[in-house]
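In this notebook, the sequence line spells out the residues, with the fold written below as integer tokens. This is how one looks.
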Amino acid sequence: MTPDCMLYQSYKLQHMNPENYTRRAYIGETSMRQRIRKLEEKCEKLNSERMPVQELLEEIRQAMQMEMLKRPAEDYLGWLADSKAIISKEKEKGSASGTDAEVKG
């Protein structure tokens, strides 16, 4: 190893990758702190990316546990519209019978 980061090994000379002795250095207290800090940042980044995916996965699991419908969705939507119409007509009927009682009284 030379001072300008050239590696002499087995009768050949090669330049070392600067990333190996700067960013990924494992020797020394400072390099350990940097490595820990970078790993913590990477962990936080991965967790922030994981949370939306985890929520989506939970929603999918809940949907998969639901009973499957045997008819097309249009049938169920039609039934829902019919039930809403019945409720509104019953309210109108109730308010009309209330006005009839006022007129008679």
Summary: The beta strands are 6-9, 12-15.
